[in-house]
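Anyone else keep sequences and structure tokens together like this?

Example one:
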Amino acid sequence: MKTINLGMIGSGHVSNRYFEKAAKLEGVRFVATCSKHLENAERKAASYGVPRWYDDYRVMMDEVDLDAVVVTTPHSMHAEPVLAALERGLNVLNEKPMATTFEDCKRMVALAEEKNVIFMSLPFDLQPAFLAASECVNERYLGKITGAEAQLSLPGPWRDNWYYDKSISHGGAVLDCLVYPVSRLVGLLGPAISVMAEVNTLIPNRIVGDGKKVVSDVDDNVTIIVQFAEGQHAVIRSLWGMSFKQNNTIIYGRKGTLALNDSGFPLIVQTLDQIIPDAEQVTWRGMENCYIPHGVISKQKNESVIAHFVHCLRTGEQPVQSGKQQLHVHEIMFGAYQSAESGQRYQLTTTFTPWARLDPQIFDTRSSYI
């Protein structure tokens, strides 16, 4: 088995998970680190036994024999190293968001296709409960799809290093958090056609971390309405102002409901007239005809982000969540900014082929009585 040589661009705490997960994989190693400050790259290299470190990612890419790079820099610093790697024909695993402008996102996806390389951009949703949910989104359990809602809301990032400074982050809750519920919903339901949004800064004066006071100029309060081709609406929200974290996804149908990570359950299917095999019947939101589909969940592959990326490197397959899918996710986000600024509906221009292959008839609410 050929050893996969990886380079890490970024030395913050986010990079740690990639070093740790890669160490558990056979034939995978990080051979270089890069950070804006050389001492940070050296410190990270020493922590994980990486032999080389740099403060210039271009030099690292040109000097080190790499199969791919992993980019974990702050949001506004994703575009340049990703595009530099793709130009060199290197495969790329990129943290979320893809970039801080839609134009840069489009350039990444187009360049990856032109160079015929693997381009994987987070979020990575393919955990067992999500994969099981994709199998349960069907007309047998839910009936016709009528709507959805999702959110990732929390008190706000506890660190004050750059999250609350728009000149560095180029955005707040939309780029940092909204990307997750948007990714989950389009991953389960497929591409949308338009978005309307309200986005603002609700809490400009914050207390973070160990009590430090900071002045924030980033968006921390966003609500969007995404519309699908047959008229269904999904309400998606991110608020950096709650006393707890809420990170759920709910899909509504005429005969049932599917909920991910809601009320303490990883996956719930509420259905009016079906019994789900290999499932535990539970009470959810006061309803008793609800099931945890353990049988469906247990058969799903539990794969880490880096493991899926390495699989793609070894097989030449593009990630299940394709570049075009993640481009659509990001157009929804940047469309939200435009809609909030203009007060108008933003019409989406991108699309993708859903990997889950939903039966399109599940959205047909108009051709018969339901």
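And example two:
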Amino acid sequence: MVKLIFLFLATTGLLFADEMPVEAPPEVTLDSLKSDIATLRSETDWVWTCIAAFLVFFMQAGFAFVEAGFTRAKNTVNILMKNFADMSFGAMAFWLVGFSLMFGEAVFKDFGLGQWSLAENLLNSDKGEMEAGNYTFFIFQIVFAATAATIVSGTMAERTKFHTYLLFSIVITAVIYPIFGSFAWAGLFGKSSGFLENLQIGSSEGVEGRNFLDFAGSTVVHSVGAWAGLAGALIVGPRVGKFQEDGRIYPLLGHNMSMAALGVFILWFGWFGFNPGSTTSVGEGSFARIAVMTHMAACAGAMGSMIVTWILFKKPEIGLSLNGALAGLVAITAPCDNVSISGAVAIGFVAGVLVVFSVLFFDKIKIDDPVGAISVHGVCGAWGTLSVGLFNLDTGYLYGGGTYQLIAQGIGIATAFVWTFTTSLLVFLILKYTVGIRVSMDEEIIGLDILEHGNEAYPVSK
């Protein structure tokens, strides 16, 4: 037995450990320390950006619940399917076409519109650590593209053919959203830059001008989705029974405010990835500051809309109050990187008030938007983008920055509307006269769940 133990120790090297050669540790130098620190910083930034992307991905569940709760029970499966399709088909379209149009080498220098290629051709063009960072950037942009697409589903809810909506979802993520994104955000990837990034409004000799600023996408993401949805709502027309011949507006109430409220809370939570995640960095702690601005604007938006509905309707209305919080979140998305807390509260409160009157306005002109998406994401997205020119601590009018930033913001807002609304209107007209866009009246009355999907969200047990 002793011999066996001796043999084991000898063969493993434990008995003669002192006599075995020990490999010297690598030499630590100042350059190696700097390299290790730089690598650690990059990897930390990548982890944070991926976590933020996962939060934004979860926002898809929030959109699904908000839209389903605000619409009738007979169309719940249809709403869920559209939100599910936005993420899956939208990701494919963005990979195949959209990412390169948005971030590829520019067809027209300093204008936008990247040259088409598969996304991996751009992602793999930089080897080593940069390549890993490119994939981090890609997943973050995928979930942003899906957000723009899914806003459309709410504006056209309860009367749109599923396959037609699916076709448009592919078009907006492949072409419409990426091309405007290339105007405003192409420089984020560093292959080219868009003309809105190079406006230089008010520049003179030795003085730098103002460029369009939209930190996380009040216009680039939210208003683009809303203006596309506005075009769709116009082409598909209002739901049966919404607007009476005598001018009265018949409210088609949502079936589940609990679901809608949960959806808003999920979106609110996801927004902590949407805005702070747009830093793509944990350096200097700016993501924490942006999280505070995001939260305070949402709180102010909810307060604003609740107070206004209380005054107008003598009761605090749940649907518009929920939309007020979303309006505040949308509005703060553009200026969140460089405003004060008081500025964020003002921006959010104005958005909460604005969304109520905007919803009433669109009802007045007979544009049927079942979830108020045009008002929340379009109108309040435009307000939030414009507010950069007022509340930005460096260039805002209220802080002595003059009007040049306001002008730059106005150009960006107008460009987004003209590009998105025009192209979306054209696409929807083509779809209307080819594959058709609206379900039959019988199908609309029965509900889209059964006839479009052969299923119900709430089947009655027998």
